[in-house]
Design goal:
By secondary structure, this protein is mostly helical. Among the domains are: 118 residues, Glutamyl-tRNA Synthetase, domain 3, CATH 3.90.800; 68 residues, Glutamyl-trna Synthetase, Domain 2 (Glutamyl-tRNA Synthetase, domain 2), CATH 1.10.1160.10; 49 residues, Orthogonal Bundle (Helicase, Ruva Protein, domain 3), CATH 1.10.8; 95 residues, Arc Repressor Mutant, subunit A, CATH 1.10.10.350. Helix content is 48%, strand content 9%. The strands form five sheets. The protein has a three-stranded antiparallel beta sheet with strand order 3-4-7. Strands 1-2 form a two-stranded parallel ribbon. A hairpin with a 3-residue loop joins strand 5 and strand 6. The structure holds one RNA strand.
Length: 512
RNA sequence: GCCCCCUUCGUCUAGUGGCCCAGGACAUCUGGUUCUCAGCCAGAAGAUCACCGGUUCGAAUCCGGUAGGGGGUACCA
């Protein structure tokens, strides 16, 4: 009789409301590599959302077992990135908690205790087979086109013998994989996944010298920190088989597992990597911050990458996402990062952001660009407020304030080559002279009066609509920007007159 | 090689046997608004649901196989 294939529960079949009744504890366990990968951040977000959805705890653990160098700096990156995105953790290296320590490297005693328990109960055995011998066996199996399934010679040792031998030799330890059995994982995203234990060799859980290996450490930590839902990247799916066997060997209750697909590079199915990202694609979280993305926008965008609320909702507040998040609506196929859509989502959030908050967030970008003082003077603040208002929807990223603000904030006029092209057109010089004369005495120097005055000059000179181009190019040095009359008003009479003069000199210099 | 996972418009997705000759969004294209840009409004185009076979009155949805992509096969994490 063929085993009934277990299907995923229908979407939304309960977990959205009451399926998970017990306490939920999730974790994010990054390695301190020096940056937060955007795909890893999404995994962190899903864990965080699940915990918040069910009023549970989100734990930050640092999987630092093989990185001794520069951990401090990498740690700072992790903390700062998570905090910036608003993914707060209830237990972790810096805040502590009842199940610490939260550095994997500091849990070695727990791992060794688990190894000892497995040895003692006859679930594992010390193995002295050398790596060179193993390599030969592997090669031989490959040559014979047989799968390589290794079982060590000490496999049938008694628990006490095994323990004694290991204490004496501190050699590698292998898990004694039971034979003829099938392991079934009920993955919250993928449904039932089965493995036959006969396909799995006796994997090592400690290397020669006694150092615990990842598969052992990972599941032991999850068990001991009382993690209820292990939500992690799909590359760990294969690791789950040995981890399940270890948990079973330890007699420990199992967490629920959910394997989320990897994040692919835009337009493809290739995994997004930091090593060779496609041009213009940002992989590290900090790049998004530096580019001027809003944390709320990024949360929304990342949530939509592999998860959906329904068949039409794209823009959702953090609260809405929390209230509706469930693993059964996470896709099982990899999702390519879509920079265009992220940008669009960012646009939606920027548009909705109140002006004063936007200004507050944009100011540091101007400070870093050297366009305002640190701290900005009251005058500069006032100008920036005017710029923001005039720019309106044109500000998509916080950093856009640099692009649009420079023409108002810098002292000297800088004329873009495209703007210069306008100024070289016949009649420009003459019109500018007229405008200069008009502006010099214009009272009051405000939007309505400026506009009316420019209209008069246009009719007087008969240049038509081109006058706006001349005006924009000569006063801002740009061809794009906010409405030209807004620009004039923001610049103020003094600067407008000065800039027009500068522009005329340039024109004359080129002509002469 | 062997094991496991994945496969719906260019992209993110909806879809769990009839409501789907497949819906939404981004991107694209066209028209309108406009001093530029960005917007905004209106519209268009875009998917033989990877492929082949089966079950069924009926399949994107269930079953089998094939192909392609990904992960694992470490005394890495």
């Amino acid at each position: 009789m063929a085993p009934q294939k277990v299907r995923r529960a229908p979407r939304g079949a309960g977990s959205r409301s009451t399926r998970i009744a017990m306490e939920v504890r999730t974790r994010f366990a990054p390695s301190p590599t020096g940056y937060l990968h955007i795909g890893g951040v999404r995994t962190a977000l899903f864990n965080w959302l699940l915990a918040r959805r069910h009023g549970g705890q989100f734990i930050l653990r640092i999987d630092d077992t093989d990185t001794a160098r520069h951990v401090d700096d990498a740690l700072t990156k992790i903390f700062e990135g998570m905090r910036w995105l608003g993914l707060d953790w209830d237990e972790g290296p810096d805040v502590g908690g009842a199940h610490g320590p939260y550095f994997q490297s500091q849990r070695t005693d727990n791992h060794v205790a688990a190894i000892t328990q497995l040895l003692e109960s006859g679930k594992a055995y010390p193995c002295e087979t050398s790596t060179t011998e193993l390599d030969e066996l592997r090669e031989a199996a490959k040559a014979a086109k047989r799968p390589f399934v290794f079982r060590g010679p000490n496999r049938d040792m008694s628990g006490s013998e095994a323990l004694a031998l290991w204490k004496e030799k501190q050699c590698a330890v292998r898990f004694k994989v039971p034979q003829g059995k099938t392991t079934v994982l009920l993955d919250a995203i993928r449904g039932a996944v089965e493995w036959r234990t006969d396909m799995l060799g006796d994997f090592t859980i400690a290397r020669d010298g006694g150092k615990p290996l990842y598969n052992l450490a990972s599941i032991v930590d999850d068990i001991e920190t009382k993690i209820t839902h292990v939500v992690r990247a799909e590359e760990h799916l294969s690791n789950t088989h040995p981890q399940l066997l270890i948990a079973e060997g330890l007699g420990a209750p199992l967490p629920t597992f959910a394997h989320v697909p990897y994040v692919a590079a835009p337009g493809g199915k290739k995994k997004l990597s930091k090593r060779n990202p496609p041009p213009g694609v940002m992989v590290a979280l900090e790049e998004y911050e530096q580019a001027g993305y809003l944390p709320e926008a990024l949360v929304n965008a990342l949530a939509r990458l592999g998860w959906s609320l329904d068949d039409h909702t794209e823009i959702m507040s953090r609260q809405t996402i929390i209230e509706n998040f469930s693993l059964d609506r996470v896709t099982s196929a990899p999702a390519g990062l879509d920079p265009d859509k992220m940008y669009w989502i960012q646009d939606q959030y920027m548009t909705a952001l109140p002006a004063d908050e936007k200004i507050e967030l944009m100011m540091p970008f101007l400070v870093r660009a050297g366009l305002v003082a640190d701290p900005p003077t009251p005058e500069q603040k006032a100008v920036v407020a005017k710029i923001e208002k005039a720019c309106g929807d044109r500000l998509k990223l916080l950093s856009d304030i640099i692009r649009y603000g420079a023409m108002f904030l810098r002292e000297e006029l800088v004329i873009d080559p495209k703007a210069m092209k306008h100024l070289r057109k016949p009649g420009a010089e003459e019109v500018l002279a007229k405008l200069h004369a008009t502006f010099a005495t214009l009272e009051p120097f405000d939007l309505a009066t400026i506009e009316a005055a420019v209209n008069d000059v246009r009719e007087e000179t008969g240049v038509g609509g081109k006058i706006n181009h001349f005006l924009r190019a000569s006063t801002t040095g740009e061809t794009v920007g906010p409405g030209v009359f807004d620009c004039i008003e923001i610049l103020g009479r003094e600067k407008v007159l000065k800039n027009i003069e500068t522009a005329r000199e340039k024109i004359a210099a080129e002509a002469g």
